Structures are given as C-alpha cells and as structure tokens.
Amino acid sequence: MTNLVNHIKSINEKSKKEMDANPGLWIGTIVEDPKHWKEYGITTPAQFDRYQDECCLYEVVSMHTSKSYARSLGISAMTDEELYKTLDFYSKAYDEFDE
Known about the structure:
This protein is mostly helical. The chain folds into 2 domains: 1-41, no CATH class; 44-99. It is built from 5 helices and no strands. Helix 3 (45-64) packs parallel to helix 5. The termini are far apart.
C-alpha cells in the first residue's frame, strides 16, 4: 500500500505544480488514504491506474452518448489491451466530433 500512496502523492504533486504554473487552472487532489482505495479493491499503483482509465473511458463515452450505453460496454471486464484500444478509439472519435 505504501507504493500506492506514493504513486498518488506523486500525481497530486504534479497536479499542484501544473496549477501553480497556470493560474486559474483547477485540478482536484486524489484521496491519499489507503483505506479509501482498499474499499474499491485497489491496493497497487497498477490497479489504481486501471481504475482511473476505466473511469475515464466511462466518462468520455457517457458524455457523448449516454450513461446506459457507457455501462453496456462492460468496461471493467475488458482486458488492458481492449480498454486502451477502446479509450483511444472514443477519444479520437469525439475529438473529431467536437471540432
């Protein structure tokens, strides 16, 4: 769990530096309490990163379609390869849509 906490602290530190460099930018800090993450079944940096990527894909898809459609993708059952390919696909598709 120490690795997880250090990983999250590192992300929070990078976010703070980014905010300091860009006045007016706001980035939320991530909970650093390992008990919080253990409730989600997350105890390693890899599990945390996977969880963040799953949340990202869900939000990207639900923002441009619907939450029910995003849930229908079965994101948590995807392999890492499927997750990253799907995230890449939807990110590019919606970048073009927004232009």
